[in-house]
Design goal:
Layout lengths: L15 H29 L1 H4 L6 H33 L1 H21 L3 H4 L2 H31 L5 H27 L3 H6 L4 H4 L1 H12 L6 H9 L6 H8 L1 H11 L3 H14 L8 H29 L1 H25 L2 H28 L7 H26 L7 H11 L1 H9 L13 H6 L9
Helix pairs in contact: 1-3, 1-4, 1-6, 1-7, 1-10, 1-14, 3-4, 3-6, 3-18, 4-6, 4-10, 6-7, 6-18, 7-15, 7-17, 13-18, 13-20, 14-15, 14-16, 14-18, 15-16, 15-17, 16-17, 16-19, 16-20, 18-19
């Protein structure tokens, strides 16, 4: 691999930090548009299209399980894409993951239904969902590494937060697309209407490719490759020198359970016969919460650049446990004003604290040579558990699916490991980029790197 040498500690070329942040934002928005339209469809459409309509409760449970399948595939994708991201560079993985997501999502829109091909329909659905999971496994880790390594000193939190702002933007876009789709007459919705958002992924792939192919590789990766060469087996180095931080990231990533419960289970619960709220209204709750999150995430990240990663992450993790309880209670009352208010507070404001800071918090735990692998593997194992949290919530909610308090307590319990992970982690917001992860290396008994 031929890369230009970069002076140690050199800053990114003028304009590159903004270009990297923009590429991360737009790419993540387009990528997670694909990922989250599946979540909306799994809650509202797929139980009737791909599963047995004679047993609605089981059909919903199986549909939500397919949502979790992608999270099970994520750790495998993280191992593979993390390996190549630390060997070939961040840019190549960012382009590949976007193209794979666009293709797999488009294919979902083309699938035959259960009425047409029987049990083959859900099998094909699961296969496409696995491809989505593999793609998502490398997307955030590569975008985080790209923005962190391009970011100027003292602003890594702000610039890396664009990856998660993009995720929220993609979720907002997916919700806005589904609002008019969900308002279609039932017959049109179930025959062709649900397919339209998935077909739009063709535009996702094209736009994402154009944006990301023009981005330069990061100075940190170029310097590492030129001076020391890339690591032959990043996973071996990662587990030898950074195993404790990988465990912290896994525990911290369980905070994503708040997102999956909010966007999928709560949506299915609110629109079920037990509560009877309208699909359109509940989709608007998610849309408005994401609008608020778009503003809150960079603000929380900016605060983290000033006071540190740990306190901001702790606010988000502990606060989400409380506000999710309030949100599910509000949904159970059937009150639209309460549901909108608590939904925006929980997902738009409080959860954004943890969501906005974790890209920098996790990425700063690792050295450049294993950063993408560390973030990808750690987050995707944690996200896998978060994905299946929806399925467990459906079981915990009882045969009628209306025990919201049990789901709230379950979600709160999943916020405890992130709190412990943050309390045990180092504070890194003032550590120079080229020195990140060095303490872990010294603790592992390796020679300390000498920096100029």
């Amino acid at each position: 691999m031929s890369v230009p040498a970069t002076p140690r500690g050199a800053a990114a070329p003028p304009g590159q930090p903004r270009k990297a942040a923009t590429a991360a934002w737009v790419g993540s928005a387009l990528e997670y548009y694909d990922f989250f339209i599946y979540g909306s469809a799994a809650a509202l459409i797929f139980p009737e299209v791909f599963f047995d309509e004679s047993d609605p409760a089981t059909a919903t449970l199986l549909s939500l399980a397919t949502f979790g399948v992608a999270y099970a595939a994520r750790p495998v994708g993280a191992l593979v894409l993390g390996h190549f991201g630390d060997k070939l560079g961040r840019k190549k993985i960012m382009v590949f993951t976007l193209m794979l997501m666009g293709l797999s999502t488009f294919l979902i829109g083309c699938l035959p239904t259960r009425a047409q091909v029987g049990t083959l329909a859900p099998v094909l659905l699961v296969l496409c969902r696995v491809l989505q999971g593999i793609s998502a496994a490398g997307e955030q880790a590569s975008a985080n590494s790209m923005t962190l390594e391009h970011a100027p000193p003292g602003r890594r939190g702000f610039f890396t937060s664009f990856t998660l702002s993009g995720t929220q933007g993609g979720q907002l876009l997916a919700t806005l697309v589904f609002i008019p789709i969900a308002a279609l007459p039932e017959e049109q919705l179930l025959s062709w209407g649900w397919r339209v958002p998935f077909w739009l992924s063709v535009a996702v792939a094209v736009v994402g490719y154009v944006i990301r192919r023009k981005l330069d590789e990061t100075p940190a990766f170029a310097q590492q490759a030129a001076e020391e060469g890339v690591v032959k087996l990043p996973l071996a180095v990662l587990l030898r020198e950074h195993w404790a931080d990988v465990l912290r990231v896994i525990a911290g990533a369980l905070i994503a359970s708040v997102s999956t419960i909010f966007t999928v289970w709560a949506l299915a619960y609110a629109t079920s016969d037990a509560v009877g709220m309208s699909r359109t209204a509940m989709l608007w709750v998610g849309a408005l919460a994401n609008v608020v999150a778009l503003a809150a995430i960079p603000l929380w990240a900016t605060l983290a650049d000033r006071i540190g990663r740990r306190p901001v992450f702790l606010i988000g993790a502990a606060g989400s446990a409380v506000t999710m309880f309030l949100y599910l209670w509000a949904v159970s009352t059937g009150s639209y004003p309460l549901t909108f208010l608590t939904g925006i507070l929980c997902f738009g404001v409080v959860y954004s604290a943890a969501n906005g800071v974790w890209p920098a918090f996790y990425g700063e735990m690792f050295t450049t040579r294993v950063r993408l692998s560390g973030v990808a593997i750690g987050t995707q194992i944690g996200f896998a558990a978060a994905g299946f949290a929806v399925t467990f919530a459906a079981r915990i909610a009882g045969p009628d699916g209306d025990d919201w308090s049990a789901v709230a307590l379950f979600t709160a319990a999943l916020c405890v490991p992130p709190v412990i992970a943050a309390l045990s982690a180092r504070e890194t917001h003032r550590v120079p980029t080229e020195q990140l992860g060095e303490r872990t290396t010294r603790e592992a008994g390796q020679p300390e790197k000498v920096t100029a």
